[in-house]
TrEMBL record:
SUPFAM superfamilies: beta-lactamase/transpeptidase-like, Lysozyme-like. This is Membrane peptidoglycan carboxypeptidase. Keywords: Carboxypeptidase, Glycosyltransferase, Hydrolase, Multifunctional enzyme, Protease, Transferase. Residues 73-258 form the Glycosyl transferase family domain. Signal peptide: none annotated. It comes from Micromonospora luteifusca. Residues 685-734 are annotated as: Disordered.
């Protein structure tokens, strides 16, 4: 039953009836088009004078995010659940049903059916229980566009449904102008794409999915009649959230109307009426916390994409405009997420630590040469659900544990930072055969107190003296992860050069203490080569991907392509790459990075590694990488790469840096990262690393001077403020 009409609505009805009723009675026998010309010729609007939204609809549409196969749906974003479809992609019975339900004379009138409008108004003035409508499909379309037009103010949108004579006459004028300029099929298509069908579904594509879980091209007669019947009162008749009996009653009404229009036979109508109401409700995901069921791990990648999106000027001048574009622009986004790589990364992360473990293993995978992010996994649910008392980030969190940002500075990555020292040394003209007698402990010029000091100076030590001490070159110094060799090498090159190298390869200092040290005193950051600065798996993977790409740095990017609602490609997401290293320098560093993973350098100088099991997991496929352990094994890290992929994983406690994960987990982290690499390269042709030049390799067989360990016990000078290091160390402990 229709709701009682308000006094204002009745007044509007009486006024408009007085304007048209007499006219309708006088000329009821006239043809519709002649009637329109007789009554409204002087009032017609031209098509050019119509609001832009009526000429080129700007209806909000849902944006879709797919994996890199273009088929696997990650999630959607929307304010309004709508997706436009072509009329050819809507079942013919659906088109016939909506015309029969809402405007039987649609193909006969000129946009505004004054005869039907006047008849409805006269009936409404006389009363009788059920209020009749007189709006054509075209008039309804005008009203729907104007009340949802995102380019109009809230007041203007509200005015589109005002119960006034002026508004109704304007609606008639606009509808008539549209009918003169657009074909009936175009108007019908636009109407079906904007009409509200209840339960949050705008447009026939969303409605078909919402109620029946299918595209509109597959709608049956009974399903079409049901949907067409909802338009009159979408919320009341919705069989999901409203009255199912009313929905079936309306379905019968529509089927009878289709018989009256000749669209179907009485027998077909009877058969459709006899069909039981069979729904397959499908709730469309909205946002990163509503990713596909069973894949809440995709939420971290989705969130990274959203944060990338709001930095792109192509989607608006401000962050707010870009956010709105994602929710209403109808974009199709093919992301760089590889479902297979992501699945392996998630499986491996949760194999090392369960979802409810306070420790975490965030993993990131990046494609060298493009910067495309292939996977972002961690043993957490991307969810706003609550956690047990006292637990901030597990098992549920939406914090960017893998990429960093907001409250996440990152984690110490230990000796993986030795790569930046090696690159800086190679760039400065040192060769891979640069030798040094690495002692068990190396006194430095930096003032320090506590267990790690020697006579008041920082004194780094080797973790395994029996295996690490002695004459080392870059190959075995890197392979065996010899601390004293790389601290010495960093001093020869200049600590500031090492810090700059890391930044050049994309390492971002998110922690205030790190950023301050890098800016104000990088030359005295002696411990930097040991990976004391906080970083993230994504930054680390991309830095190593730069070396894998022979010195070409690519900004990390989460998309392959973005297409707007009109099918046009948006010029965003293309690889943004630049050369930051000489190719030979990158090749030399890669040659040394073969040593840690159990492979051999091009010059046969690998003689031990900290992650030799990687070679077996990759079946001898060319691979390189580096392990990293922070002080007291607070974190354990491994980064591995081939020419096709770079993967990094860091075991840490995101909520408590003082919680030591322990050395025992290192082999698990290595295994996890290696298996992600194996999945990423499966089916791809094996690609070898290019060997570096003999100039950068040097001659490891030629006798060289072996510098003595310098005496670092002198007090720091003014240009060497050793207390700055102590202050930084104290900040890190805090």
């Amino acid at each position: 039953m229709a709701a009682p009409r308000s006094p204002l609505s009745r007044l509007f009805t009486v006024l408009l009836a007085g304007l048209l009723a007499g006219l309708a009675l006088a000329v009821a026998a006239l043809p519709g088009n002649l009637l329109l010309g007789f009554t409204a010729r002087s009032a017609l609007a031209s098509y050019a004078s119509l609001p832009a939204s009526l000429r080129t609809p700007a209806t909000p549409q849902r944006s879709y995010l797919y994996a890199n196969d273009g088929k696997t749906l990650i999630t959607t974003f929307y304010d309004v659940n709508r997706t436009d479809v072509a009329l050819a992609d809507i079942a013919p019975v659906m088109r016939q049903a909506i015309v029969a339900a809402e405007d039987r004379r649609f193909y006969d009138h000129g946009g505004a059916d004054l005869r039907g409008l006047a008849r409805a108004l006269v009936a409404n003035v006389k009363g009788g229980g059920t209020e009749q409508g007189g709006s054509t499909l075209t008039m309804q379309y005008v009203r729907n566009v104007l009340k949802t037009d995102p380019t109009r103010t809230a007041e203007e949108r509200a005015a589109a449904t005002d119960p006034t004579v002026g508004r109704k006459i304007q609606e008639i004028r606009y509808a008539s102008a549209l009918d003169k300029s657009l074909g009936k099929d175009e108007i019908l298509d636009r109407y079906l794409n904007i009409a509200y069908f209840g339960s949050g579904a705008y447009g026939i594509a969303a409605a078909s999915q919402r109620y029946f879980g299918k595209p509109p091209a597959q709608l049956t007669l009974a399903e079409s009649a049901l949907l067409a019947g909802l338009v009159q009162s979408p919320d009341a008749y919705s069989p999901i959230s409203g009255d199912k009996d009313e929905a079936l009653t309306r379905r019968s009404y529509v089927l009878d109307s289709m018989v009256a229009t000749g669209a179907i036979t009485a027998a077909q109508a009877a058969q459709a009426k006899a069909e039981p109401l069979t729904l397959h409700p499908t709730a469309q995901p909205n946002g990163c916390t509503a990713v596909s069921q069973g894949h809440d791990d995709w939420g971290y990648f989705c969130d990274y994409l959203r944060r990338w999106w709001v930095t792109q000027p192509a989607f608006g001048a401000t962050v707010a405009e870009r956010e709105q574009a994602l929710r209403s622009g109808g974009y199709t986004v093919v992301t760089s997420l590889d479902p297979k790589v992501q699945a392996t990364a998630q499986q491996q992360a949760t194999k090392v630590y369960s979802y409810d473990n306070k420790r975490a293993l965030p993993i990131a995978a990046v494609q060298p040469g493009t910067g495309q992010v292939l996977a972002m996994a961690v043993n957490r649910h991307y969810s706003l659900d609550g956690n047990p008392a006292g637990q901030a980030n597990y098992p549920n969190t939406v914090n960017p544990l893998i990429s960093g940002g907001t409250s996440v500075d990152g984690y110490q990555a230990g000796s993986t930072f030795k790569l930046f020292t090696m690159l800086a040394a190679l760039e400065a003209g040192r060769t891979l055969s640069t030798g040094f007698d690495a002692p068990a402990k190396l006194p430095t010029r930096y003032a320090a107190e506590g267990p790690g000091s020697c006579d008041g100076h920082w004194c780094p030590a080797n973790a395994n003296p029996d295996w690490m001490d002695g004459y080392r070159m870059m190959w075995d110094g890197f392979g065996r992860s010899v601390n004293t060799y790389f601290v010495w090498l960093a001093e020869q090159v200049g600590q500031d050069k090492v810090v700059e190298m890391a930044q050049r390869l994309g390492i971002t200092f998110r922690a205030d203490s790190d950023a301050a040290f890098a800016k104000d005193n990088a030359a005295n950051w002696g411990s930097f080569t040991l990976g004391v600065a906080a970083t993230t798996p994504l930054d680390l993977a991309n830095a190593y991907a730069t070396v894998a790409a022979e010195g070409t740095y690519c900004t990390p990017v989460p998309v392959v392509s973005v297409t707007d609602a009109n099918g046009e490609k948006v010029p965003v997401g293309q690889p943004s790459c630049k050369r930051v290293l000489d190719a030979d320098v990158a090749r030399a560093a890669t040659d040394a990075a073969r040593c840690p993973v159990g492979q051999q350098s091009a010059f046969g100088q690998c003689n031990g590694g900290t992650a030799t099991g990687v070679n077996d997991i990759l079946d001898g496929r060319p691979v390189a990488g580096k392990t990293g352990s922070s002080e007291q094994n607070s974190t354990e890290t491994f980064v591995g790469f081939t020419p096709q992929v770079a993967v990094a994983g860091i075991a840490a406690n995101p909520d408590d840096p003082a919680d030591e994960v322990g050395s025992a987990v290192q082999t698990k982290v290595i295994d996890a990262v290696a298996r992600v690499i194996a999945t990423a390269v499966k089916g791809q042709p094996e690609k070898a690393f290019a060997a570096p030049s003999h100039e950068l390799a040097g001659d490891p067989h030629r006798p060289v001077d072996r510098p003595a360990v310098p005496d670092r016990r002198q007090q720091p000078t003014d240009d060497n403020p050793g207390d700055f290091l102590q202050r930084w160390l104290n900040n890190r402990r805090g």
